[in-house]
Give the backbone structure.
Amino acid sequence: MSDPTNTGASKVGIISCSGEEIPEGTISRLATLRVLRSMRPDATVTICLPLFLAGEGGERNFAKTHPTITVDGCEKQCARWGTEQHSGPVARALVVSDMLGGDCAGCQRSMRSPGPWDENAVRIVADQIASAVDEVLREQGSEL
Amino acid sequence: MESEADKSPVLVIPCSGIGKVQGLLSREATYLVTDELAPGETDTLCLALLVKGDADAVAKVQMHKCVTIDGCGKACARKNVEMAGGRVSKAVQVAAVLKNYRGTQPGTGAILTVDGWPVAREIAETVAADAACLRAGGEVAP
């Protein structure tokens, strides 16, 4: 996992919804991991949301030391709320249910038997997160 | 006489760990319990919603018996349920269970392997049995 204490200015923080109750939460985490590990591994870092929300100074400084993108599963936007409440304004706030609309209807919260709907949803959301990372880096003046 | 609370679903609340297999094991074990082994007798909720202080989530953990499944020693699920005023009847730690599976490769934060699913199922079967005991008014070892 990327080191959340890494304060490199060119790193974008991505904080995913935990969303254990809903399929959108699973999509949010999987898409975030795909960006972190495969799509933009050198430009992104993350932290577990409840650890961040319940954490102390080190964790709470996360959004102060990184431009941060939140990826929420639903309109309750726990990741965005928590980040802005405890750490600072976010650079982008993405919501999976807005991005997918009805396309999430066939998705599941467990990965036991993922279907084509799940992979398609993760791909769409990961692409949008990666685009948001690129935009934020451009705004920060970092080379992509 | 059995109390009303004993008949209500036991809340199984997993850790939200995103980067390591322990977090995924905690969630998949939870879904095995709530969706396959004890549907209707157990339920789950979003940990972040609870941490955020959502009134419905806080009321839920205060009204229902809770089992937490944490990936690591930071025990975010257990600590946050307790901070919200809930009573944790059982706290499972995936890292401790994995000590019984030394040498296996259970997977990553994104996917479980054929070695990982039996770990999730072992945790789930233990939690489902504990939930049944709690609903019957019994106690389980914390």
